Amino acid sequence: MKRLIIWLLVAAVGLILMLFSYYHYQDDVFDNPWEYAFMYIGAGDPNCEIEGLEYDQRPVRLLPLAGRAQLFTQMAKGFGPKVEWAYRIAYQEKVILCSDISNDFTSDMLDWGRLPAGNADEVLAGYTAKHKDQITVEGHKLKVTGQLKKGIGLFANCYLIGEGDSAHEFFEAGQSAYILRLPKEKVGDSEFHKKLNGAFPGPRFTAYAPLIRTQPAPFFIYIGGLALLLFGGCLALFELYCILADRIRNKWLRLPLAEIRRYKYLFIAMNLIYFGTVVLFMLVSYAVPELQSCFLVGVTSQLKEGSGILGIAGEAYASRNILRAAVTTFAINFPIGSLVVITLPSIIIPGAGVLVAGLRSILWGLIIAPGFSDLLGPMVPHSVTLLFEGHGYVIAAFFGVLVLVYLFRKSEGPNVGIRYVRALLMNVRGNLLVIIVLAVAAVYEAIEVILIMIYAGR
Questions:
Q1: What CA–CA distances, in Å, run from 55 to 32, 58, 261?
Q2: In DSSP terms, which residues pair with 157 in a beta bridge?
Q3: pLDDT tens, position by position, 399-442
Q4: Pairing state of beta strands 140-148 and 122-125?
Q5: In 92-215, which ranges are continuous DSSP H helix?
Q6: Range 75-101 burial, b when 16+ CB lie within 10 A, else e
Q7: Using an 8 Å Cβ cutoff, are 213 and 287 in contact?
Q8: 288 Cα distance to chain centroid
Q9: What is the DSSP letter of 347?
Q10: Start-to-end C-alpha separation, the chain
Q11: Lowest mean pLDDT: which of 49-58, 239-248, 377-386?
Q12: Per-chain mean pLDDT for the chain
């Protein structure tokens, strides 16, 4: 019991560090009229008029992709042409014409510098724009006079130029930025967003999602806290299993718990390797943000289109029905995510399911790393889902590896056939424990994700 408490305290310290990394590095609060604004890039007129919707159609020029971002276009293309174009829109810097910058922005919205002067070859840079001194468009050198604050994410990698004698020379006919300022009450209206997607359908229009990187300090504090939470949490669960192995009388649960205690070093090692891989590839994702953005754009595309497993889950969560979301999550995680791709392969080729579990840990690290600031806050509560869900998959992989152990361990039976049958039976019992852990993970995930959606106004 003492060790259980110690590991719970380690996990709690990790969670506190993650909360600190989020709240301590909050952006300055300022009057931001662009807080609920959206942007589409495309050509032509929207398909229909939506009541309460106002948009500005402004000329835009997409600048060439930078070197490393260009390298990942082929990977994005592998997810489909829509994903490739969305990736390009996210990473290509843009020059947008603003007829009167002084009406749209004030000096309070600037991180540094000043607003561009009228009728001058000057631009205002977004928060993530690479050039801080000048840019060159069609042979014209445009001076960067200032930079917008991080909170104005709509123009994160854009350069805004005022009306001038030469301004229109920079823009190509037919390419526009459609800027929408939504009322706050419409931001969380799913039906309104369906109409919005109908008004700006792909591939003619593509939504621009700004990618603002998390600063190094909060990111590495978060990763340190996450490592403590995951390692402390899985070791606390192991100690709990050891305690329950002596107290539970039902053999269908007692025996798999006893096997976990019996092969404790294998079980602990698999947990540490699984979650260690997640943390390691989060660091890789932070070092190569273009890699993460390819996956994120692909995931977002599935959620918006309602396609694939993610689309089914997205619809369940969009309903904001906790029971439906939990049942859907469990129906995906256990029969498909655990039984089909981990347990069954391990029975056919002893221990093979561990490879699938390892691949999943890599993908988790690449996709859900808090490398972009919008992910930092939601990932704090979601890290508990990460712990329970990942732990459930590790349990399934552990009993899959035991098939291989049983086959070579003569003490488990007089011959290979009997040892194999015993290994199968132990996997059946072990999956009861997997069901319990993944059920807890599904309920928690349904609650935390829906609460986050409500809080964020989605």
A1: 17, 10, 62
A2: none
A3: 999 999 999 887 777 888 889 999 999 999 999 999 999 999 99
A4: parallel
A5: 101-104, 184-187, 190-199
A6: bbeebeebbbbbbbbbbbbbbbbbeeb
A7: no
A8: 15
A9: H
A10: 42
A11: 49-58
A12: 88
What angle, rounded to 10 degrees, do the helices at 264-287 and 353-367 form?
Answer: 40
| Structure token digits, residue 421 | 């049958």
CA dist 394 and 276 (Å) reads 12
Pairwise CA distance, residues 250 & 240, whole Å: 16
Q: How far apart are CA 80 and CA 296, in angstroms?
A: 13
| Nearest CA-CA partner of 287 in 219, 188, 375, 191 | 219
| Contacts of range 84-89, beta carbons closer than 8 Å, 24 or more positions apart | 85/203, 85/206, 86/206, 86/207, 86/209, 86/297, 86/300, 86/301, 87/293, 87/294, 87/297, 88/62, 89/41, 89/62, 89/206, 89/207, 89/208
- Show the tokens assigned to 317: 């969560």
- Residues with Cβ within 8 Å of residue 110, at least 6 apart in sequence: 124, 146, 147, 148, 149
**CA–CA dist 289, 23 (Å, integer):** 23
Secondary element (H or E) of residue 161: strand 158-162
Please answer whether residues 88 and 65 qualify as being in contact, where contact means their C-beta atoms are separated by less than 8 angstroms: yes
Q: Could you tell me the CA-to-CA distances from 318 to 184, 196, 285, 384, 412 in Å, in that order? A: 18, 16, 28, 21, 49
pTM over 0.85: yes
